[in-house]
Design brief:
5-stranded mixed sheet, elongated, Ribosomal Protein S5, domain 2, 287 residues, 4-stranded antiparallel sheet, 29% helix
Length: 287
């Protein structure tokens, strides 16, 4: 009997996917059992590649995406340009993804870093203000394009939170040289300074799903799976931090958005951010 139910369900999904999703979403759950009013949980792990690294690799995984975040840290003279940070997202598989999908996520993450929302640039300077650390964030992503921003931001923040910077100085005779070599840079002390983040934001998403029954209101769903996206009329993406800080908000669609639904979405996003920060701090404290 169970096998017949499963076969009938799969046939319904293949022949009439809208009806298939209607039955689940109207009951308040996705086909995988997650509640439609709950954001998808991520699993975070922090790994150190070798002893000389001043940060750890962050691996973030959920049911359909996998992302690796690393930091390449270098040192240079203290100059204004080029920027002392960069963010690059690449794919980890041969799965085809559109260029604009990477660009969107990269642009948002670059915006967060460039405007000092994630960390302050003052802590990248040596004590004498002569040297400057450069943080190049490398993110490798595999999964659904619709989850790219959420997952890549989690990996970026998780990896940044593990950075410890050495105390360096430039030898006096090299301060006027145009180029500096490795031998010109010395350790001021053996201690490293913890890199401090201003916030631990998360990205969340909301969609309005249109049911078959025109007399029913659209259903509000979180972290919408890509297979359901095509049946949604409106989508919203937000980036929120602690202390009820909204850093980024975008979206739109064919259906007007009820403000009560928006308030609930933002409130739930703040709660999700708290959960993420607690989970990350727990991981870091165990290192």
């Amino acid at each position: 009997m169970v096998e017949n139910v499963n076969v009938n369900s799969l046939m319904l999904k293949a022949i009439y996917p809208k009806k298939y999703y209607d039955d689940f979403l109207s009951s308040g759950v996705f086909p995988n059992g997650r509640e439609i009013s709950k954001f998808e949980d991520n699993e975070i792990s922090l790994e150190k590649k070798d002893k000389e690294n001043y940060s750890k690799t962050a691996v973030v995984v959920n049911s359909s995406s996998y992302v690796i975040g690393t930091q390449e840290i270098s040192v240079r003279r203290n100059v204004e340009n080029p920027p002392c940070f960069s963010v690059e997202i690449t794919k980890t598989s041969e799965k085809k993804q559109r260029e604009h999908e990477y660009s969107f996520a990269e642009n948002v993450l670059t915006f967060l870093c460039g405007h000092g929302l994630l960390y302050s640039f003052d802590q990248l300077l040596s004590s004498d203000k002569v040297l400057q650390f450069v943080i190049n964030s490398k993110i490798k992503y595999s999964g659904n394009p619709s989850e790219m921003l959420q997952m890549c931001l989690a990996a970026l923040v998780s990896s940044l939170a593990t950075i410890s910077l050495p105390s360096l100085y430039l030898q006096q005779f090299a301060k006027d040289d145009i180029k500096i070599s490795t031998n010109d840079v010395k350790f001021e002390t053996e201690l490293c300074k913890k890199f401090v983040l201003n916030d631990y934001p998360v990205a969340t998403s909301l969609s309005l799903y249109e049911t078959e029954d025109q007399n029913k209101d659209s259903i509000m769903i979180y972290s919408t799976p890509p297979s359901i996206k095509e049946f949604c009329s409106t989508g919203i993406i937000s980036v929120v931090g602690n202390k009820n800080n909204i850093m980024y908000l975008s979206g739109g669609g064919s259906e007007p958005f009820d403000m009560d639904k928006m308030k609930k979405f933002i409130h739930d996003s703040f709660e999700y951010q708290k959960k993420f920060e607690e989970q990350l701090m727990e991981k870091i404290n165990k290192l």
